[in-house]
Specification:
This protein has 356 residues and is of the alpha+beta class. The chain is built from 12 helices and 11 strands. The radius of gyration is 22 Å and the shape is globular.
């Protein structure tokens, strides 16, 4: 009622909260009090599966549980965004507004295929970018461009590189003397301010403190790299630039179902209300496998010989670094996993530090 009054409308807004939830989470909007309330209502609407297109998207992605905000961010959002990245965003709009089940199934399958194509293009560009980085001396920013990189995935590549190397990244797709690029940054470097100091080189640019987009003539890329390095040096806060906030250190055997469920009272999670993260120390890798692309399942053993299951979605970055028998510290979030009606506690691993 309050929102209807603020907007000056008599529409029944409840039926649109599922779309509001997707947009809020996928576009990393701060989870303020009112946004949390809207996302919570939207998740209830999503899980009711009343929207034909969402129901089809759930089916094609094999989502057979009540979803949370993380599922929007990692599963629903990327598929909806895939259309705009590679083809036409109107395809996703049609999915959300159609009342025809056959059309919804067709579009949902198309979005799934586009997302797989987006993943392949991202992986290709990421591998090529890594090879280019091997030949460079990294200072305080990564600036890379190539002609065969798809403009729709450069932002994702920039984000992956920033996460790995802990410095800002600018990745450019070059075509006919012009480059379109996306930048991603770290907490203590306002990338918009840094790029603003180089704006005389751009055809256009825009963004905010952690992400930006731009277009530039190819002949100006090398000049941009030099100016951007200086600009970041001038505006950046004290190092370390990239920090990971941890809530507390807790051994894995601390958790039971009741304690994990208590964390759900803090949902929905998102920007400015991050999912809780904990540190578990001195865990030996007893076994690990890579069942699907970019996904690792671990069996971890603590000092008392207790066995735990961990999962990580950054498999390609970790596979060459890890081996059975290693002792590691992990940054993790506990979750309740249900398989064939049987519940167990598993640990979603956000980061790993090799101890020995």
């Amino acid at each position: 009622a309050v929102i209807r009054k603020l907007l000056g409308t008599d529409l029944n807004l409840k039926e649109y909260t599922d779309i509001v939830a997707i947009g809020t989470v996928a576009d990393v909007v701060p989870m303020s009090f009112i946004n949390r309330a809207l996302v919570k209502a939207g998740l209830e609407q999503l899980n009711s599966k009343t929207r034909v297109g969402i129901k089809s998207l759930f089916s094609v992605t094999s989502l057979d549980k009540d979803i949370n905000s993380q599922d929007i961010g990692y599963i629903i959002g990327p598929r909806i965004n895939a259309a705009g990245r590679l083809e036409d965003a109107r395809k996703s709009v049609k999915l959300l507004i159609t009342k025809d089940e056959i059309e919804a199934k067709f579009i949902a399958n198309d979005l799934e295929n586009l997302n797989r194509k987006r993943q392949k293009l991202t992986d290709l560009a990421l591998r090529e970018a890594e090879k280019m980085i091997e030949k460079e001396i990294l200072n305080n920013v990564i600036v890379l461009g190539k002609e065969n990189w798809h403009a729709g995935v450069v932002g994702i590549v920039a984000g992956r590189l920033t996460e790995k190397y802990k410095i800002p990244s600018l990745i450019l797709s070059i075509n006919n003397g012009k480059a379109v690029g996306s930048a991603r940054s770290v907490p203590k470097v306002n990338i918009y301010k840094a790029l603003d100091k180089c704006k005389d080189l751009f055809i256009k640019f825009g963004g905010h403190s952690t992400a930006a987009g731009l277009s530039i003539k190819t002949e100006n890329i090398n000049t941009l790299k030099l100016k951007l390095e200086k600009a970041i040096e001038d505006i950046a806060e004290d190092k370390p630039w990239s920090i990971k906030e941890i809530d507390m250190e807790l051994p894995l055997d601390y958790w039971n179902k009741e304690k994990v469920n208590q964390l759900k009272t803090l949902e929905p999670f998102g920007e400015k209300n991050p999912i809780p993260k904990f540190i578990g120390r001195n865990l030996r890798i007893d076994y690990f496998t890579n069942p699907t692309r970019n996904f690792i399942v671990f069996t971890l053993k603590d000092k008392d010989g207790k066995i735990f299951t961990g999962k990580n979605w950054k498999g390609n970055e970790l596979l060459n670094r890890l081996s059975v028998g290693m002792v590691i510290d992990i940054v993790y979030t506990p979750e309740i996993y249900c398989y064939k009606g049987i519940e167990s506690i598993e640990f979603l691993i956000d980061d790993i530090k090799i101890i020995q």
